[in-house]
Amino acid sequence: MTTWLITGCSTGLGRALAEAVLERGWNAVVTARREEAVRDLAAAHPRSALALPLDVTDAEQARAAVRAAHERFGAVDVLVNNAGYGYRSAVEEGEDDAVRALFDTNVHGAVTMAKAVLPGMRERRSGVVVNVSSIGAQLCPPGSGYYAATKLALEGLTGSLRAELAPLGVTAVAVEPGGFRTDFAGRSLNGTSTVIDDYAETVGPRRKENDTVHGTQPGDPAKAAQAIITAVTAAEPPALLLLGTDALSAARDIADRRRAELEEWAELSASTDIDEPGR
Q1: Catalytic (active-site) positions
Q2: How far is CA 133 from CA 6, 14, 113, 218, 272, in A?
Q3: From residue 52, how far is each of 39, 40, 77 by CA, in Å?
């Protein structure tokens, strides 16, 4: 039976995915920083769900969660690195401690979890690591530079990890959701207390106190969960899975603009090679 370990299951996409996995009769290790936030999932599925406290920035707690998963279910077949949060500020406004904490959770926490499950996956020559990114990694909107940077870092790691694992029967998938009806733009969104007036036009509308997106996002977390399951269980899971029509539309537009700019500057780009004698 397939066993999933999902981080950040208290609300939103993580919880929707945990519910979908358990409804299919699979095993799920459901985690959150506060175990009581996911205890109801284990109570509803006492044989197939294991609720654990997990702060992904705590390496020992991460390793303990994986050990508990192996002791209860024998293996972790799918790791979903979903735990994370947003942070709004202009780059110049970013507070050092807050930015480090953001990277510790969104990037280093995912790496810690991957390192904890990969020995077992390599030994069995099977497994999937799913890293939940964001369309923000491509959009890089003003006011979300640090958040976008964490997701770009996560996608870079996922790409290399996928190539490293390919001969071993293990794979890695990056997931880029658009806007989904979760707590991401509400409870899970942090912002700087440093405000520079010169950024009022670009960053101002996106500051947490001015954000009007929460509760109006187009995406359905339950449908996103089913899409992730479909991708993970495919014969060849995708390297990148976009979720939502808004994410798909944005990615297409970005690809078109990047290609146009690439061609515009192609001659200059190609002019930097060493001139070899006789060529």
Answers
A1: 133, 147, 151
A2: 14, 13, 15, 18, 34
A3: 8, 12, 17
- Reduce the DSSP state of residue 100 to 3 states and report it: helix
Q: Give the CA count within 13 Å in the CB-facing half-sphere of 10.
A: 18
Token pair, residue 242, equals 């976009």
The alpha-helical segments, DSSP class H, found in 25-74 are 39-44, 59-73
Q: Find tokens 């190539």 and name the residue.
A: 163
For the stretch 134-148, pLDDT in tens is 999 999 999 999 999
pLDDT band at residue 25, thresholds of 50, 70 and 90?
very high
Are the beta carbons of 114 and 79 closer than 8 angstroms?
yes
Residue 131 is inside which H or E element, if any?
Answer: strand 127-132
129: CB partners within 8 A, 6+ apart: 78, 79, 81, 114, 117, 118, 121, 158, 161, 165, 170, 171, 172, 173
Q: Angle at the Cα of 28 (from 158 to 127), degrees rounded to 5?
A: 40
Per CATH, domain 3-248 is 3.40.50.720:
yes
| pTM beyond 0.70 | yes
Which tokens is 243 given? 């979720």
Domain ranges in the chain are 3-248
